[in-house]
Amino acid sequence: MTVFLDKGRRLSTSRLWKLQQDFYERQGLAAFASGVVPSQITTSPRIAAAYARVVRGFLLDCGGHGGTPRRPLGKIHPGEPLYLFELGAGSGRLAHLFLNQLASLERTSPLAACPRLVYVMTDASESNVRGWAANPLLRAHVDAGRLVLAVHDASGQDLVRPYPSGKPLSARSVRNPIVLVANYLFDSLPQDVFRVRNGVLEEGRVTLSADIPERRSPRDPAVAGQVNIRFDYQRARTALYEKPAWNELLRSYTQQLEGSTFLMPIGALRCLERFASFARRRVLVLAADKGRFDLEALRGAQEPAIARHGGAFSFMVNFHALADHAARLGGFAMHSRQGSERLGVAALFLGGPAQTLPETRLAFERELSALDPLDCHTLVTFLAAQEDRSWLDLILATLELSGWDPACLVRIGPALRRNVHGLKPAQQRAVLAALERIRSNDFPLSDAEDLASEMALVLQEMGVRPASKPDDVLDRPASSGAGIPGLTLPPS
């Protein structure tokens, strides 16, 4: 039978978001470990390293070079933390890799005078936060004072509540500028849908229905994955939102997007407003997501595409609207140069013009402006399908491009094994060095045994050691200098 869960509601207020929240509460961290919810690309070593360099640039702009910060940044308090909030931090992999990368940069080139950066991992589900607390890799960062675990719902809460205890973080307790990391988050916060027809702005109203057996309750968790979504349109009111600037943006879209359907990222806009109050708009935002980054990409778009991830949902992000929001607050935006609907990275600063952050902009230009997070994925897919033995150099280059990502080795391992017979000593050393770097980035979710086994099989094919005990490959400290136990490197 067909059951209607919502009829004629604005998308941002529909039951769709509650269904998604319930899914994440039930699944917990398993949603990320299983791959049902995508996260591997946006938590990769490559993204973590790039973000660490951009954040280091932000620290320099905040006085880390020993000079005076530019006026829009206001007073910096070196004795107080500079908080980085990761919203919807998922598995915790990005936090772990980012903190390792930032520590490596600090050892190479310490900052002269700068607030201490404290990374705050947040999630709306307390069960997820408890799971992070039980992870020994994350626990080490917590014990070192670099990491705080916290409960926070990015779709509507003002406070960030440390777990298991601690004083809530809010506008009253945060004294320095802040960084927000929002990878694969804005696409799953509440949005509204509009279209322009004959110069008239029409608002999409959503109807949610599900075809379920007669004996199954509409509250059954499985229903979330079977929801049908239909939009009907009606003339929009002239003042839909609480912020005049957002209504002004809708009027601008009405004039410029005739015949187009677009999303208004109202959940993301409200989230940015709340965190802007934390730090008097001195907020740097880094977000990797699928979306449309300029007005031209919005033109001609039709019914919004909805991606399903089990009982979760995601939409394209209207990054143009977020950049407009930053500009209206006196800030600016940057984004990577990718196709209009591919995964990209955006940076927003809400508290001043571009010249406020020269080091941040330089780091973004070097690390992220030309980054397409999917290019490495494309190469891995290609190489994994190659059956011949002439690809070693490209395989190693791809692993380096990935930032030495364990997940890439798991996928590309069989192809690598076909290319490691009869290597010259220099080639053997290159392969062993690659395995060592990959091991240093390991953050086990559900594939730790796969990584151990794959590394052991590669070593066996090289004739370096047997694969009878694949777990031994991981039986060493995670620091990159420890070496893979039992290996004797060929002489150079």
Q: Based on the structure given, which CATH architecture of the largest domain is correct? A: 3-Layer(aba) Sandwich
Number of helices: 16
Could you say what the CATH topology of the largest domain is called? Rossmann fold
- The N- and C-terminal alpha carbons lie at a distance of 71 Å
Low-confidence stretches: 473-483
Which class of the largest domain in CATH terms?
Alpha Beta
Q: Please indicate the count of domains.
A: 2
- Tell how many strands the DSSP assignment holds: 16
Tell me the structural class: alpha/beta
Write a compact overview of the structure shown.
α12 (375-384) runs antiparallel to α13 (392-401), α12 (375-384) packs parallel to α14 and α14 (406-417) runs parallel beside α16 (448-462). This protein has 492 residues and is an alpha/beta fold. It folds into two domains: 19-188 and 270-367, 3-Layer(aba) Sandwich (Rossmann fold), CATH 3.40.50; 375-474.
Structure description:
There is one protein chain. With 492 residues, the chain is α/β, with parallel strands linked by helices. It folds into two domains: 19-188 and 270-367, Rossmann fold, CATH 3.40.50.150; 375-474. The chain is built from 16 helices and 16 strands. Strands 2, 3, 4, 5, 6, 11, 14, 15 and 16 form a nine-stranded mixed beta sheet that branches. Strands 1, 7, 8, 9 and 10 form a five-stranded antiparallel beta sheet that branches. A hairpin with a 2-residue loop joins strand 12 and strand 13. The longest helix has 20 residues, at 45-64. It is globular, with a radius of gyration of 24 Å.
